[in-house]
């Protein structure tokens, strides 16, 4: 079944479409993880006499600090696209090209816990020997939604 698209839409799909990270979402994520890391650091200071409490709080605090650094690092490179959707396939920021004919499964996963959204992820399965058969990309901070991503992939793969 063919999908109708206007002349202007066809013109737009002739050019590769870069997908960027959202500045607002990255700032919100960095702020959230910095606050969590500070709260857990305060917890570590208050539970000095309880060894297991210090270890648990310190472990989660380091994880939160690491996630904050990842958000800040991505924020520093906001001008470079996370990936590019083109007629050849998906090209990621590290130069990895996944051709459309090698992509077996391309899904957008909205992860939630008891109805609370906690993450978004792109899962791509390929039949290529290298890279791994399954490519995962975090998508929580992308500028586009899952529906828009899948629609773009369908338009360019056709």
Description:
The structure is a single chain. 43% of the residues lie in helices and 25% in strands. It has four helices and seven strands. It has helices at residues 7-12, 23-46, 51-76, 146-157, and strands at 17-19, 83-85, 89-92, 97-99, 103-113, 116-126, 134-138. It has a four-stranded antiparallel sheet. The protein has a three-stranded antiparallel sheet with strand order 5-6-7, with helices on one face. Helix 2 (23-46) packs antiparallel against helix 3 (51-76). The longest helix is centred in the middle third of the chain and has 26 residues, at 51-76. The radius of gyration is 20 Å and the shape is elongated.
Task: Give the strand order, joined by hyphens, for the main sheet.
Answer: 1-2-3-4
The string of secondary-structure elements, in order, is: HEHHEEEEEEH
| Overall geometric form | elongated
> How many individual β-strands?
7
Largest sheet: 4 strands, antiparallel
What do the pLDDT scores average to? 82
> What's the tally of helices?
4
The rounded Rg comes to: 20 Å
Overall structural class, as computed from helix and strand content, comes to: alpha+beta
Summarize the amount of helix as a percent range: 40-55%
User: What share of residues are in beta strands?
Assistant: 25-35%
End-to-end gap: 11 Å
Q: What are the low-pLDDT stretches, counting only 5+ consecutive residues below 50?
A: none
Layout of strands and helices, then pairs:
Elements: H1 7-12, E1 17-19, H2 23-46, H3 51-76, E2 83-85, E3 89-92, E4 97-99, E5 103-113, E6 116-126, E7 134-138, H4 146-157
Antiparallel strand pairs: 1-2, 2-3, 3-4, 5-6, 6-7
């Amino acid at each position: 079944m063919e999908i109708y698209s206007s002349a202007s839409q066809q013109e737009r799909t002739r050019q590769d479409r870069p997908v960027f990270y959202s500045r607002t979402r990255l700032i919100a994520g960095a702020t959230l993880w910095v606050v969590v890391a500070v709260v857990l650091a305060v917890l570590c200071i208050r539970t000095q006499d309880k060894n297991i409490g210090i270890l648990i709080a310190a472990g989660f605090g380091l994880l939160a600090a690491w996630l904050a650094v990842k958000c800040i690092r991505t924020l520093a490179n906001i001008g470079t696209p996370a990936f590019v959707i083109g007629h050849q396939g998906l090209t990621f920021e590290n130069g990895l090209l996944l051709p459309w004919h090698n992509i077996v499964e391309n899904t957008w996963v909205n992860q939630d816990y008891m109805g609370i959204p906690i993450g978004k992820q792109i899962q791509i399965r390929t039949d290529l020997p290298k890279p791994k058969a399954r490519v995962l990309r975090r998508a929580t901070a992308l500028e586009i939604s899952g529906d828009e991503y899948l629609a773009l992939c369908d338009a360019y793969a056709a």
